[in-house]
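On clarity, I found the account of how folds are encoded harder to follow than it need be. For illustration, here is how one protein appears when written out as sequence plus structure tokens.
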Amino acid sequence: MLTIAQAAEKLGVNKKTLIRWGASGKFSAERDFAGNRVYDERDIANHAQWFTLRRKHRTHNRQLTAIRKEADRFTATQPLGMETPKFHKYDEMKKAYDALRKWENEDKEILKEYSELPRGFKAKVDPDA
């Protein structure tokens, strides 16, 4: 069992945040013999892993807009009858689509990491999902 200070440190949040989460029912704590809040070490470790993955996934998803924008430059069609059609440089196209493929592979790896959390954990942290 961890004290509230130890749990807050492992999660990277303030002690008051844990108290608020407990009051709202998002993150429950037990009480020790003196009435102090204590937390299950495995539960804190799982939540710490969840928070790290969630931050990593959000950062990763923010990159997608720029990557898609670059790749979409090469999917635009040209009207028929243009006298001088515009051709894209192969190296530019390859770079854009390689970046997109790399993003997709990294996304699969992040999702795989989510699946390594204990069974039922996602429902615990996000009951609406």
Observations:
- The beta strands are 2-3, 30-31, 37-39.
